[in-house]
Backbone:
């Protein structure tokens, strides 16, 4: 919807530039065009939102034809009504309808080219490359911690190895497959338990999980890389350690995840953490496009990463 709004308004600005007799009249011409374009645009967007479940079931070309016919029909009704009021002549109304159909076809062509550029095969390959780029530094440290436990505490060492195997399986999971929020939280807990073997009382963890469905689907390996950075850059450099805080809540149709840690070694943290942050931000864009976002905030005493994503990811039905 955002791309449609921007695209149509850019086209209106270009049309105003062509129509304006002088450059100084460009703004006034755009305001006149916007008075006609914006109501039509909002009506069509509302109708398309209401009909999207039906449109997803149509073959692509038939769906595109239906969209062009719908926008042209709404434009015809609106502009011919305006012409009956004497505000627009018949030729002007016909011209407006043809421009509406042309603008719709142009945007549909753009969206088709964009979907081809982000085809499922290319998206899956990109996700696989991004997942492979996440380097689990904790594995080496955790293996060393397990080795130190084998003789003194063999049962704890066995449990730690089981947790490690779960983390390996998560890293090998299909990057295009969503996982439940419960699985991702459990993976994060297992990772923090492994780090607790190495850091002991220096690592404190504060989980704050609101009333939320644990079956919500989210992309894999969202929490663990950020928890790893929180430990590696926020807890490990500090002689006294600190607390990693994880807040997960649902606000309307959005799932909000916030991870906070102390800012010990802030310069090192700011550089080192960018790899995981950039990786997750790009993966969110591949999964959700503009519907998800990742934000960071560096304070005097803590560093926070906040992820916001939709609670439901809609898929077109298979054809």
Residues:
């Amino acid at each position: 919807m955002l791309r449609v709004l921007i695209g149509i308004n850019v086209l209106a600005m270009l049309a105003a530039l062509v129509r304006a007799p002088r450059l100084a009249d460009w703004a006034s011409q755009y305001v006149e065009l916007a008075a006609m374009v914006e109501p039509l645009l909002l009506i069509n967007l509302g109708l398309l939102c209401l009909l999207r479940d039906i449109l997803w079931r149509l073959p692509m070309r038939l769906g595109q034809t239906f969209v062009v016919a719908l926008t042209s029909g709404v434009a015809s009704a609106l502009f011919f009504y305006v012409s009956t009021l004497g505000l627009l002549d018949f030729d002007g109304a016909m011209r407006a309808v043809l421009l509406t159909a042309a603008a719709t076809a142009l945007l549909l062509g753009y969206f088709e080219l964009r979907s081809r550029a982000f085809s499922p095969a290319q998206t899956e390959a990109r996700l696989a490359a991004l997942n492979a780029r996440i380097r689990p530094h904790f594995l080496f440290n955790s293996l060393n911690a397990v080795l130190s436990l084998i003789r003194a505490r063999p049962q704890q060492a066995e449990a730690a190895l089981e947790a490690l195997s779960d983390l390996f399986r998560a890293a090998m999971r299909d990057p295009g497959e969503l996982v439940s929020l419960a699985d991702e939280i459990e993976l994060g807990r297992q990772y923090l338990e492994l780090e607790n073997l190495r850091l002991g009382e220096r690592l404190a963890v504060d989980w704050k999980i609101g009333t939320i469905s644990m079956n919500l689907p989210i992309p894999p390996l969202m929490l663990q890389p950020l928890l790893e950075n929180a430990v590696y850059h926020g807890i490990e450099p500090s002689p006294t350690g600190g607390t990693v805080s994880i807040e997960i809540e649902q606000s309307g149709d959005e799932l909000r995840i916030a991870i906070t840690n102390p800012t010990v070694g802030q310069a090192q943290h700011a550089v080192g953490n960018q790899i995981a942050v950039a990786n997750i931000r790009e993966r969110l864009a591949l999964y959700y496009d503009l519907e998800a976002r990742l934000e960071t905030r560096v304070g005097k005493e803590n560093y926070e990463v906040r992820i916001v994503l939709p609670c439901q990811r809609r898929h077109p039905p298979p054809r």
